[in-house]
């Protein structure tokens, strides 16, 4: 029995397990109103994304990539980076002011994030253009963006930020933009280092340095800003490449 070929799939299943735990903590946050559960959910999604990176790494290292592993990876990501962020958006709608009315169906709009994630994951499996870079925002990055929003609410002292993230119109805009950017035909630069020279990695170095500065100064608020910065920097880079 070749144990090596099962290691990447096992790591993928650990990613799925982390996603399931994150969903449980989000559910607890809704039941108890204890926002610390969102923090635990965020950490488990981060852990799942960590394992999501290493399943592919070990599959390439052991040369055991397979169609089964590809499908398992997407199914695991569907929970960790699809269901979990959709559930968080649902909970944010549920706990927000009712600018869109008191219709009980309104919070379910948050699961548009899950639908957008599902479409992206299915499309990614058949899109041969995304081997070295991305077209549209990867689901893990989108998940980090969404999962960070309750933490921004918890740890930010800004009344403006409180008003923004409890406004249902804003939440609807975030939801729709999230589903769109996941599937938009926007090339995004990869963070993988292929050549170990400063000249060939200027974009990645600038992004990482600014991201580090944002994390140090803004903590959880830095996470959504970093994701937005990543998309904008890619758009600007694409404009220069076309010239």
TrEMBL record:
Pfam families: CDP-OH_P_transf. Keywords: Membrane, Transferase, Transmembrane, Transmembrane helix. The keyword Endoplasmic reticulum does not apply. Gene3D superfamilies: 1.20.120.1760. InterPro entries: CDP-OH_P_trans, CDP-OH_PTrfase_TM_dom, CDP_ALCOHOL_P_TRANSF_CS. The chain crosses the membrane at residues 7-28, 40-62, 105-122, 134-153, 169-190, 202-233. Belongs to the CDP-alcohol phosphatidyltransferase class-I family. This is CDP-alcohol phosphatidyltransferase family protein. It comes from Flavobacterium psychroterrae.
């Amino acid at each position: 029995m070749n144990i090596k070929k099962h290691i990447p799939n096992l790591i993928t299943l650990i990613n799925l397990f982390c996603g399931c735990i994150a969903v449980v903590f989000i559910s607890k946050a809704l039941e108890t109103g204890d926002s610390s559960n969102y923090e635990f959910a965020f950490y488990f999604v981060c852990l799942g994304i960590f394992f999501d990176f290493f399943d592919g790494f070990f599959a390439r290292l052991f040369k055991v990539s397979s169609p089964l592993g590809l499908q398992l990876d997407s199914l695991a990501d569907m929970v960790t980076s699809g269901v979990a962020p959709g559930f968080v958006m649902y909970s944010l709608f549920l706990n927000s002011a009712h600018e869109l009315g008191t219709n009980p169906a309104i919070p379910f709009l948050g699961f548009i994030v899950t639908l957008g994630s599902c479409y992206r994951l299915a499309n990614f499996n058949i899109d041969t253009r995304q081997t070295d870079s991305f077209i549209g925002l990867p689901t893990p990055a989108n998940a980090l963006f969404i999962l960070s929003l309750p933490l921004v609410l918890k740890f930010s002292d800004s009344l403006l930020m409180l008003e923004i993230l409890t406004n249902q119109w804003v939440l609807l805009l975030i939801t729709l933009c999230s589903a769109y950017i996941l599937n938009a035909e926007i090339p995004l630069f990869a963070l993988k280092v292929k050549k170990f020279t400063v000249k060939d990695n200027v974009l990645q170095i600038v992004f990482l340095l600014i991201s580090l500065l944002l994390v140090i100064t803004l903590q959880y608020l830095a996470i959504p800003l970093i994701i937005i910065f990543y998309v904008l920097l890619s758009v600007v880079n694409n404009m220069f490449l076309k010239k």
